[in-house]
Automatic annotation (TrEMBL):
It comes from Janibacter limosus. Pfam families: ABC_tran. Keywords: ATP-binding, Nucleotide-binding, Transport. Residues 8-238 form the ABC transporter domain. It comes from the Bacteria. InterPro entries: AAA+_ATPase, ABC_transporter-like_ATP-bd, ABC_transporter-like_CS, ABC_transpr_LolD-like, MacB-like_ATP-bd, P-loop_NTPase. GO terms for cellular component: plasma membrane. The keyword Coiled coil does not apply. SMART domains: AAA. The lineage of its organism: Bacteria, Bacillati, Actinomycetota, Actinomycetes, Micrococcales. This is ABC transporter ATP-binding protein.
Amino acid sequence: MTEPVISLHEVSVRYATGRETVTALDKASMDVLPASSTAIVGRSGSGKSTLISVLSLLRSPASGSVRALGREIGHLSDSDLSRLRSTLVGTVFQSFHLDPTFSAADNVMLPWYFGSGGSRRVARARALEVLEVLGIADLARRLPGEMSGGQRQRVAIARALFTAPPLLIADEPTGNLDEDTALQVSDALYALPGTVGSAVVVVTHDTQVAKRAERCISITRGTLNYHDAVKPGARGEGV
Ligand SMILES: Nc1ncnc2c1ncn2[C@@H]1O[C@H](COP(=O)(O)OP(=O)(O)OP(=O)(O)O)[C@@H](O)[C@H]1O
């Protein structure tokens, strides 16, 4: 059986407010298999951001277990958890988060500027390689202000891939794009399991974008509902 990149087993997350406790995730179980694509949909307040924060190893659950790259995160020190996080996951956001003064290639190399290691020459070659995967190597020298929204989001996706993470999480990646561009960018994301082998998890409000993933999970008040999918444990497969 293939080991999931990350696996959640009956994970619950609660927030204590002044008067009440909100259950944002309620016994959520899901497996993200290597080189798979998953869409997560749900109304505002259903628990999507909370689920992403658990999948990104940014939030530890109140109960349940999380296993990432074969390790139970509950057993890890803060520094081991932080190392595991930086190995595991690349993230893409709705509003791109590019540095407007950096070229596309330099934006993709940001992990190197922040100390991911190796020589500048190798980092630049890697940046060009991932820009090529996204079909925009010819834009390597352009500034973000000289690109379309779809091109900027491709740069942001390339940056998330720079360190070759086994898991790429995209939070409303098409929210700032028109309909056609949204579908092109989502197709580029969903191609990544086949081209670079990363598993892709996309949170989206857009049903057309969600439909293009191999699997779709909807969240209702913290409960996961599986569509076109096999529940964890059934036939030994993931979601
Ligand atoms: N820091 C917090 N303190 C208290 N309650 C919180 C906190 N963060 C989230 N919640 C509550 O937890 C539930 C899930 O919130 P979450 O942000 O995960 O939803 P979401 O689906 O991402 O929403 P949106 O689409 O609006 O971003 C909601 O009821 C929300 O009010």
